[in-house]
Design brief:
Oligomer: single chain
Order of helices and strands: HHH
Structural class: mainly alpha
Shape: rod-shaped
Number of helices: 3
Amino acid sequence: MYDGTVEEYLYRRQQVEQGLARQEHEERPARPSDVFSAKRTKKEKRRQEALLRNERRKRAGIWLKRRDEAEKRVEEFEQLKDALEKQMADPDLYQDQEAWRQTSNAYDDCSRRLDRWLERWEEAQEKIDRIDEKLGLG
C-alpha cells in the first residue's frame, strides 16, 4: 500500500518507470501535491488580501469619502482664488472702489474657505493613515 495521494503515487510510479527515482533522503522535485499546495497558498493569500481591503473599506470608508470631497472642494477654491488674484492684478480694478471691495471680500472669503477645506482634508487623511497603520498597510 502506498502512503500518500493518488497524484503522488502516479508521479512516483512515473519516476520509477523512467529510472529517475531518488532515495528518500535526497531532494525531490515538486510533486503534484506540492503544486496543489502552492495553488492553495496563493489562493489563501489573495483571500487574505481581499479581507484586508474589505476591512479597510469598512473602517476608513467614511474618511475616504470625506477626503475625496475635501480634495474636490480644495480644487474648486484654488481655481476661484487664482481667478480672483488675476482680477486683483488688474490696475483698472482699483479705479472702481466698489468693484475692488467686492473682489477683496470675495478673495478673503475664498481664502478662509480654502483653509477650512484643507484642514478637513488633512484630518481625513490622518484618520486614514492611522487606520492603515493599525491594519499594517502603512
